[in-house]
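Journal club prep — side note

Before the paper discussion, L.F. wants everyone to see what a predicted structure for a comparable chain looks like in token form. Sequence:
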Amino acid sequence: MTVQIVTDSLSDLTPELTKDNGITVVPLTVIFGHETYLDRVTISTDEFYHRLVYGNIWPASSQPTPQDFANTYDKLAENTNEILTITLSSRLSGTFQSATAAKSLMKNKKCKIEVIDSQTVAMGLGLVVLSAANQAKKGMNLTQLTEYSRKALNRSHFMAYFDTLKYLAKGGRIGKAQGLLGSVLSIKPILNTKDGEMSPVTRVRSQVAGMDYLFKYVTGFKNIEMVGIEHTTQIEPCDAFAKRFSAVYPKVPVIRSTVSPVLGVHGGPNALAITVLEAEAK
């Protein structure tokens, strides 16, 4: 039996990618006042960002419960006896804890489950999940796949351009970038994930300068397995980035996505993110 792969919606994998690669996604929840929505399930990215930009209610988010994961595990256990779950960073959400606690709530006690805290988010997580799914199809067992995924996380490099840090700050997810809050408004921060938290890399004066910085960063890698490019409200800069990247690396797969609603709660409008998954060393 093939190992089944589970992740959460902050992996930013589109429904098409998860379906084509046999990946099961447990959604987080977006909250607008008294209204709750399942990330990418009962609210689309387009609807969410419209409400974020034009609405008058500041959204919040919440993690899946252990029972949400237990229900997912039990359903998958009808067709497998091995499940690998890879979640967003435990420093950014309690999702990892829920995924772990769910093991004791399962009806099926024979199914083996491993849960990995990715210490990252968005396509930093998503590309590793995709790579793990490819290896599962090739027949890796749970032990092999767990080791493979942990090593793959060291090859995953996520970096994001933010138009503002106020959404991260209000949501309490600003981490080590706290010191940038007093910056001049015209300065745009670029952050990555370090030790599971958002961490400052540099500051630029415009989106164009930000995309140039990200392009130089990405093209600094010699051997790339795949690249993820994603946006919150502006797709055009990502289209241009993808075209520019593919001119240099025509054979490297480019995975496109929109940042999930729950991440959008904290990222805000006009945020853009790039992830490089380095190829395995031969």
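L.F.'s comment for the group: The two ends are 28 Å apart (CA to CA). Keep this in mind when we get to the figures.
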